[in-house]
Specification:
Largest sheet: 15 strands, parallel
Strand content: 25-35%
Shape: globular
Order of helices and strands: HEEEEEEEEEEEEEEEEEEEEEEEHHHHHH
Length: 382
């Protein structure tokens, strides 16, 4: 399994957890620069946390969703775990699935069901275990714990030192390394230029099969993965700043999408066509050139952020469909963006949806600006 497909597995894992997330339970939402769930405390609901530093020392009796910079989970979680952050460290046990995405990830705990990871570097300690399958895409992969079924790993460097009761599938730039003490019950299928290294004391019960990688395809897949990850993180960061800094404007744009969708579409079509024409006309004159440059910059920015506001709008409805009571605009943004990423996997549909998002998002922003300008005029502010 190549890096691009692994990244989509992780993405689908995010969405699968969301679909099952709190369909009939209450949700506790927390946000801030720093959040700490103290040792001994118990959250008897699903917990959603967004912040710079997140430290979960207590118990979450439900699902845990966390988005932040530095995230540490030392308490136990009785449901699923979905975490995205810069650095992630999990030492508490997870009863069901765990989906992690970030820069550096360390885990030294037990995951009861499936385990999906996409990150820069990953390490699973000897004290860790996965109840079913483990899928890992990272720059450096170190699996020293136990996997009860199959292990799929993609990375520049891949080391396996624990036990795997099923098959192992590896794609690596360097030679895959099976350490002394490792025990693999099934086959090992690996894709690498180099031969696998199996230390004395390692046991492989099945066959070992090597495949020479297609360098052009491998480079292309890695570039696609990097582009996808960079694009998603970029639009999320921009969206996060927008919805936190301009909450009233965000709410007004979403309200217009809800109550004036045809008008938003009309404004979108007109704006996308008229603005470039006006800009080109202004560029003809020396006096109008600066105005044209400002107009084009604003035009490009509106195109880029149109997806942010439509994602918040769609994310709100996804939360309502899941019977979530959360009013977190950031959470709406996250799941709206993830929904569009999943739709983007369908070639023809993705193009149509992207066009509609652009038109209605652009139009909603333009309509909201028009309404705000009219309000300011009435108050003699402009």
């Amino acid at each position: 399994m190549d890096a691009l497909r692994m990244s989509f597995c992780v993405l689908f894992g995010f969405m699968a957890l969301f679909v099952s997330f709190s369909g009939a339970f209450a949700v506790q939402v927390e946000s801030g620069d720093k959040f700490v769930l103290a040792a001994g405390e118990v959250v008897a609901d699903d917990l959603v946390v967004m912040g710079g530093d997140i430290d979960i020392k207590g118990t979450v009796d439900g699902d845990l969703v966390a988005f932040g910079g530095n995230i540490v989970v030392s308490g136990d979680v009785t449901g699923d775990v979905l975490i995205a952050g810069g650095t992630i460290k999990v030492t508490g046990d997870v009863a069901d699935d765990a989906v992690l995405a970030g820069g550096e990830i360390e885990i030294s705990s037990d995951v009861g069901d499936n385990f999906l990871v996409a990150c820069g570097s990953f390490e699973m300690s000897e004290d860790s275990s996965v109840g079913r399958d483990a899928i890992i895409a990272a720059g450096d992969v170190g699996v020293y714990g136990d996997v009860s079924r199959n292990l799929l790993a993609y990375g520049s460097v891949v080391e396996i030192g624990g036990s795997v009761l099923g098959d192992v599938v590896v794609e690596s730039d360097e030679a895959p390394h099976i350490l002394a003490g490792a025990e693999i019950k099934g086959d090992v299928n690996y894709t690498s230029v180099y031969d696998i290294v199996v230390d004395d004391g390692a046991t492989i019960a099945g066959n070992v099969n090597k495949k020479i990688p297609d360098e052009e395809r491998q480079r292309s897949d890695f570039e696609k993965f990097n582009a996808w990850l960079l694009g998603f993180l970029s639009i999320f960061i921009v969206g996060f700043l927008l919805v936190r800094m301009l909450p009233v404007f965000t709410r007004n744009v979403c309200n217009n999408l809800k109550k004036s969708l045809p008008a938003c579409g009309l404004w979108g079509v007109i704006g996308l066509i008229v603005v470039p024409v006006v800009g080109l006309f202004l560029m003809i004159t020396i006096v109008g050139l600066p105005l044209a440059m400002i107009l084009f910059v604003g035009y490009v920015l509106m195109i880029y952020v149109s997806k942010v506001y439509v994602s918040v709008f769609v994310g709100k409805y996804l939360l309502r469909m899941a019977d979530s009571k959360s009013d977190s605009v950031v959470l709406m943004l996250v799941f709206g963006l993830l929904a569009f990423e999943v739709i983007g996997l369908v070639p023809v549909v993705s193009g149509i949806v992207s066009f509609l998002v652009l038109v209605f998002g652009f139009g909603a922003i333009a309509l909201t600006k028009k309404e705000m300008y009219a309000t300011f005029r009435k108050k003699n502010l402009v």
